[in-house]
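ok trying again, last paste got cut off:
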Amino acid sequence: MAFALRQAGSVKDCCEVRTDIPERQRRVLQVVLWINVAMFLVEFISGILANSTALLADSVDMLGDAIVYGFSLYVVTRGTLWQARTALLKGSIMAAFGIGVLVEVVVKLLWGLVPSAGVMGGIGVLALAANGMCLAFLWRRRTDDINMRSAWVCSLNDVAGNTAVLIASAVVAITGSGWPDITVGLLIAAMFGTSAFSVIRSATRARERRRAGGHASVARVGSPPAASRQADGPRRSRWPGQRVTPPDRRTRP
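nice, full thing came through this time. structure:
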């Protein structure tokens, strides 16, 4: 887990939506995308049934990766404003799940619930194997460019998170306390919560810049330049019969 926290800059890069993906990379990212989607569902449902904060938080981390891969594959061709809106949606979804993790912690503390160490360990091993497969798929492409490098580092961080879940499950089994599960879950939630905040902020700024650019374009179209107005000659009178003297014939004081 310490490794994952040291990779804060890499986690931020993982959450960036990439463009111009070659076909050979697209096939790899499609496989990794569906592995993350499947493991999100498995970990999320298991986390609820086992009262495990760590599994819930790790499932949301999987969801964030899946959304990033999905956006990279299917959204980038739809225009800047559409990309900003969908990125804002992605950040909002992750933030909502993060709030859900915090609510789960509060409920656990109020009711004194202890997670099932067996379920945590079993699902943790499955998630570790899934992320190991992702690393294997991304290994050959990790040096292609920064896009694949960031995806590989993202999966490497996921492996670190899975390892932390397994350690927490072992400590829960030994001590019978739910605090190791809560601690690891909150650490993972803090990582993707920071990423969600960064995504929301960037998407909001991009949307505002896009709208400001659109308003500026409308203003330029609606208002002809002053030079062109002067070149058009004397202005026409607003009232019938009223004569407007050209600028060069006006009396100067």
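cool. Residues 2-219 form one domain. The chain has nine helices and no strands.
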